[in-house]
Specification:
alpha+beta, 13 strands, globular, 6-stranded mixed β-sheet, 5-stranded mixed β-sheet
């Protein structure tokens, strides 16, 4: 990532810039990026309701001198039960403009997660603006640890700042399933990294479209698994020697995106049932192409999916809650999915799985999953290759956008200006 700097050098340069621009005293309860306070490292949990209302500060945080103790004790200090919360989100944005507010999507759940992995398909042309919007939404407690694009596929990984020190060795692989296309619209981005001592793989995919293209979608899956070049040890040289690597050689795998599988039912029948509130989700899932083919062992062997309790996420008429009104009569379907697999069956527990009806910018609705994930300590002597890097530019620009009004700044400047900006960024 071009904008990655080490955490400490970024803090120093940002403090200098903010002071030069007269922003040192700016902040307060009205802005997402709060005024400087004296706190370091470990941050307290923030409720998403407080972030919605921009009522959060970093008071109450406490310092940690855990760098001199063993990796195992470090993990236990952060996560006594050795489990962290993970948010995985997927949205086919249909090349729409970046929405001004995505709180309903990213701030789902009662509290912020420790790690956010957001994959989009048919991404907007201004991907930097999307990253900044994500950073604005999450606020200063998280930072963009890694991101990658492949055509109109994109994936962003945000991590709580005090946990970035425990992320290492980001490795990525990009696969195209429709090589003739000039713009890579179908395929996958795979990103692997280690969190403490466990290695995870995240795959954002966009499969073939079309009601009758089930076999083509299965071929997309097979092509991706065969061409994936990420090993569980972090290397990316050459193709995997074993087709089963993606399934068996990571502690946890999350595969998500616009998988494009449809419900095999008449278009009007489903629309009428939804409109009349007689739609039975459990009965329609029996007609879902992905569910049926997983049961037959055609793809995603040993993967699981949380129970679907929401309405189909595709296809909607523009800026409305009405399903497809065009002459193509596309069947309302669960095209947008999040699947997961772990080596140890106790590694991944799902907490929430839902769609976001409020975001009507695309013909798809976003889908998110919140998971409780078990991780293990690093082996003693393991080096920290990553060393706290994050996207400084995205973080800084989000802070500038959230700068309070001139009246708030004026009020702040009359107060105590002796706080250290370094403490606010840590």
């Amino acid at each position: 990532m071009n904008c990655e700097d080490s955490l400490m050098s970024t803090i120093t340069s940002e403090a200098t810039t903010m002071k030069t621009n007269g922003q040192l005293a700016a902040g307060g309860g009205d802005g997402k990026f709060p005024k400087p306070v004296q706190s370091v490292n470990v941050l307290t949990q923030i409720k998403t309701t407080d972030i919605h209302s921009k009522k959060f500060m970093m008071e109450g945080s406490k310092s940690s001198d855990s760098w001199n103790i063993s990796d195992e004790n470090e993990l236990d200090n952060h996560f006594p039960n050795r489990r962290f919360n993970l948010f995985v989100g997927t949205w086919n944005m249909q090349r729409c403009k970046v929405p001004p507010n995505i709180d309903d999507f990213i701030l789902a759940g009662e509290q912020q997660s420790d790690v956010y992995v957001i994959g989009i398909q048919e991404a907007p042309s201004d991907i930097k603006n999307w990253q900044i919007r994500l950073q604005e939404t999450l606020g200063p407690n998280h930072a963009l640890a890694h991101s990658s694009s492949h055509g109109v596929l994109h994936i962003s990984i945000f991590v709580k700042r005090h946990l970035i020190w425990h992320c290492s060795d980001f490795v990525e692989c990009k696969i195209t399933t429709r090589p003739i296309s000039q713009i890579k619209t179908k395929g996958a981005i795979g990103i692997s990294f280690r969190f403490f001592g466990s290695r995870f793989l995240f795959l954002n995919s966009h499969f073939h479209s079309g009601q009758t293209k089930t076999n083509e979608r299965i071929e997309d899956y097979n092509k991706i698994t065969q061409e994936l070049k990420i090993s569980s040890s972090g290397g990316s040289n050459g193709k995997s020697k074993h087709k089963s690597d993606i399934i068996t050689r990571f502690d946890g795998v999350f595969w998500f995106g616009d998988l494009n599988f449809r419900i095999s039912q008449p278009h009007q029948h489903l629309k009428d049932e939804i409109a009349n509130s007689t739609y039975d989700i459990s009965e329609m899932i029996k007609c879902d192409q992905l569910t049926c083919n997983m049961k037959r062992g055609k793809l995603f062997k040993d993967f699981s999916e949380a129970q679907i309790t929401f309405l189909p996420t595709y296809k909607f008429a523009a800026n409305s809650d009405s399903y497809d009104t065009s002459k193509k009569f596309r069947v309302p379907s669960y095209t947008d999915r999040i699947l997961f697999r772990s080596r140890d069956p106790d590694t991944i527990d799902y907490l929430q799985y839902n769609s976001v009806p409020a975001l009507r910018n695309s013909d798809h609705r976003p889908v998110y999953g919140i998971f409780s994930v078990k991780t293990k300590p690093n082996q003693l002597g393991t080096s920290r290759e990553f060393c706290g890097k994050f996207n400084h530019q995205v973080y800084s620009e989000a802070a500038v956008r959230n700068k309070p009004s001139s009246s708030t700044t004026a009020a702040s400047s009359s107060g105590n200006r002796t706080h250290s900006m370094v403490c606010a960024i840590l």
